[in-house]
Amino acid sequence: MNSIIRGESPRPLPSNCHVSIIIKALNEEKRIAATIESALRAVSRVGGEVILADSYSTDRTVELARAYPIRIVQLMHAHERCCGAGPQLGYQHSRGEFVYILDGDMQMLEGFLEQALIFLEAHVDVAGVGGRVVEQNTESLEYLSRGERTLAHQSPGSVDRLDGGGLYRRSAIAAAGYFSDRNLHSYEEYDLAVRLRALGWGLWRLPVDVAHHHGHDAPPYQLLMRRWRTRYICGLGELVRAAAGQPRLNLVLRGLRELRLYLAVLLWWSVLISVPFWPLAASSRLAWFCALVTAPVLLMTWRKRSVIKALYSVVSWCFNAAGLVRGLLHKQQPAREAISSRVLKELSAFSSQSTEATSVRAPSVSYREKL
């Protein structure tokens, strides 16, 4: 029978559980087998466990995962799905001294965990270590746009966040209160980073490939609509609301350049709305309105040398600006409150994960398209 967990039950930390790899997943039947196998191979080299934290998948994700020697836990309620709930769900059921978060559409590469553990042992003031995530989606406008940006936190060395996953000390997470905020539909990794940095912990990115990421293959504008429906696009506003009144708020406001961009978009909208009330002739107001509407597109066309990329950038800004407002207005639950969940599969002996990981075979099933 499934075990129902409504609160976080204390779990003893076995001496042989060094690393917990938490796979967060929602309808990932297309890639979940490869993801689990990669995690089992990686953890078999250092000792530990693999946990699938399922956000109430409606496809065959859980069915496929049952073929592997892993723990499977699931949200009790589908309406609690969000990016912040998945990692926290897995963390509630984890036992490792160190915790790594892995997306269900990633394949972890061998060798990273060993190097990360060595680094953490040598640098006791560092809470988490990440590596390079190798993007496999090279056609979508969304991921092409990401690839064109040079971001400091993606370079090796000391960083202010570990986007794409990282290996964290459990002791540091415990000091920060919780692994990820169950309210956040995105920016959950940045939220963890600012909570850790506010306590004086450091974060580091190694010049090592850690995982392959396949990402969404939906058309770019369809992807924007999906992110609006799932509230993914509300994460920034939710992050700011969660940090309001907290010491970490200053880190949030200073560290997110996109926040200033979306606030500028909101100001742009305000100016456009005010144009009809300007004390000018109707033709002049129309001319000003058209000029203000097209100015951002023209500017981005000049910068990107592409009308298609420019238009997508501006539309994306608008979606994210609206999501910022929507997130700021969204009521939140206490982040420290345990997530109601159920255990779908438990191992009878913890050590079996380490011994069986090297002989994993893929289940003989056919895959359907992800829902």
Write the layout of secondary structure elements.
Blueprint lengths: L2 E3 L13 E7 L6 H13 L3 E7 L6 H5 L5 E5 L9 H8 L5 E6 L2 E3 L3 H11 L3 E10 L5 H8 L8 E3 L7 E3 H7 L11 H11 L3 E12 L6 H10 L5 H9 L5 H7 L1 H18 L7 H23 L2 H23 L11 E5 L6 H5 L15
Parallel strand pairs: 2-3, 2-5, 3-4, 7-10
Antiparallel strand pairs: 1-11, 4-11, 5-9, 6-10, 7-9, 8-10
Helix pairs in contact: 8-13, 9-13, 11-13, 12-13
Could you explain how this protein is built, in words?
This protein has 371 residues and is of the alpha/beta class. It has 2 domains: 3-218 and 336-359, Alpha-Beta Complex (Spore Coat Polysaccharide Biosynthesis Protein SpsA, Chain A); 254-329. The chain has 14 helices and 11 strands. The protein has helices at 32-44, 61-65, 85-92, 112-122, 141-148, 170-176, 188-198, 220-229, 235-243, 249-255, 257-274, 282-304, 307-329, 352-356, and strands spanning 3-5, 19-25, 48-54, 71-75, 98-103, 106-108, 126-135, 157-159, 167-169, 202-213, 341-345. Strands 1, 2, 3, 4, 5, 6, 7, 8, 9, 10 and 11 form an 11-stranded mixed β-sheet that branches. Helix 11 packs across helix 13 (307-329) and helix 12 (282-304) crosses helix 13 (307-329). The chain is elongated. The model is unreliable at 5-15 and 349-371 (pLDDT under 50).
